[in-house]
Each structure stands twice: as C-alpha cells, then as structure tokens.
From TrEMBL:
It comes from the Bacteria. This is NAD(P)-dependent dehydrogenase (Short-subunit alcohol dehydrogenase family). The keyword Oxidoreductase applies. The keyword Endoplasmic reticulum does not apply.
Amino acid sequence: MILAITGPTSGIGAVTFRKLTPHFEKVLLLARNPDKAKEMISGLPMEQQAKAEYVHVDLASMDSIIQSIKTIQSKVSHIDVLINNAGGIFHEKSVTEDGFELTLSANHLGHFLLTNKLMPWLLKSPNPKVINVSSEAHKAAKVNFDDLSYHKSKYSAFTAYANVKLFNILFSKSLAEKYEAQGLQAFSLHPGVVKTNFASEAGGIFKLLWIFAKPFMITAEQGAQTSIFLGKNEISAAQNGSYFKNSKPAKTSSSANSKSMREKLWYNSERLLEKWL
C-alpha cells in the first residue's frame, strides 16, 4: 500500500503522516519545504524512516505540480491513498504566478490538478482512495463562478476560504461519481477546529475570533483522527463521496449536495487549468 499526502509537515497533516506511516509500505510527503519534510522523516521510528520519501510540490505553482507528478510516477508504480490535506487562509489577497488567487490555488486548483494527473496511478490500485480535508466553514460559502480569483469583486479572506472548503466537498463527490465504476472512493472531511498555526496568515475579525476560540479548540492529534480513520479503514461503498465529521458521515450545506454546483466547479476548474491538464 502506497500513501501520498500534501501538507504533511505541520498541524493535522503531520499527525496524519506519523500515524498512517506504519500502515503503509511507502509514504510520499508532498511538500514545499525540504528541511521540514526531512525533519518529519527523521522523527519517525528508525524502522519506518526508509518508507518515507519527500517530493517537492508547491500548490501555488501549477508547473511545480506537473514536475512533482513526473517525480511521483518515477518513484512508485501506483498510489493507493491520496490525502489532499494542505491548505490555508490568507488575510491579504495574493495572486500566484499563474494568475490565480492564492486561497483558490492552494486549497482547490492545485489539488484538482494533482489528483486528476495522478488518476492513472490511482486507478492502478485495487482499492484507490482520495481524501480531501474540508471544513464546516463550507456552510458560509458565497460562490461567484464568474470571479473565482476576485479580479472584480472585493476580497474576503473568510469567504474565499469558505468557498474552497465547499469546493473540496464538491470535488470529492464528483470524483466518486466519475470514477466509482473503476473502483475509486473519494471522501471529504471536517477535522474540527484545531489549535494549530493554521490561521497565522489570517487577519481582521477572523484572527480575533480565532484567538478567542483557542481555549475551546481541539489538538492536532484529535483533529487528525478522521483523516486517519478514512486513510486506513475500509469504508462502505454506500458512503462513497460522503463528507465525514468525527469519523462518521455528516450533513453538508445544500450547495455541497448540488449536482449543478459540482458540474459548474468541474467545468470552471478544467477551464482555468486547461494549459496544464
């Protein structure tokens, strides 16, 4: 069994990596920072360190993702589980080298490209699985498909984040629909409100609320439990495409269940990434 995970060097991603490594023959750490990745690997028990390998990927650069895919394909014959864990919220609007708003690129478009380009490798597995880390914040989404990168409208850090967390759920449902017949399972999840450095880039009212909420937050160890559960356990086919919370299927917003929204997101994602797909 081979696992690939984005964002494995901090927060719930680091916990997920450590806890799942014993259950896999090989683990690929898809991350930007080689020093942090090597530190994560050296922190494993000695007998597990040879299982883990770093692959450079920057989800804010589509060229970087394409290069990482070539590297992955040279290292492994297939992938059994892909966990799209990386993400963030950014107080100031930032546009990537590819012209995409950073929240959209780092939380959705990067994972959309990565997953789709790795699909042939996933489908070589007898039981392939894609797990997308979303959030209850998806319920506050206000999507304008005509301006996903805020080129025209005023940027809101929280709305941008809520939108991409909705996209994580819609993407998971689309993957289940499109590839279920070929054996793929896809899930999204809410990790809980976790006390990590996640909101270090946030500002304004969101950062203030985050500070006040910290005493009530759960640990990264607790927040990683649903990712770990989905990563190592066999999940019923009846739950394919589901959104999980506390390791159980949970309710989503009406938008997250909308087939029209799924189709619009897939169409617009393909349109934006046409150059790399």
